[in-house]
Design brief:
Helix content is 72%, strand content 0%. It has 75 residues and is mainly α. The protein starts with a helix and ends in a 5-residue tail after the last helix.
């Protein structure tokens, strides 16, 4: 599972603060830390960065976004 999927899956579980989840994953995973740094430097919103990252890396977010929608979460 890539860092993006890992973060989204934990966020969708509804457990804990999403920012804390991201920070925890980034502290344990160098790829996630690099991605978080890229997002901060990009000047984009987290949503914009996520969509761009997924498109560039061939990640289909639609199944996760549909699951989030069904569970009442917004992205």
């Amino acid at each position: 599972m890539n860092p993006m999927q890992q973060m989204l899956m934990q966020a969708m579980s509804g457990q804990g603060n999403p920012q804390q989840i991201v920070e925890q994953i980034a502290s344990q995973n160098p790829q996630a830390r690099a991605m978080l740094n890229q997002m901060r430097q990009s000047g984009m919103s987290p949503q914009q960065f996520t969509m761009q990252y997924a498109k560039q890396h061939g990640i289909d977010l639609n199944p996760m976004l549909e699951q989030m929608k069904r569970s009442g979460m917004k992205f």
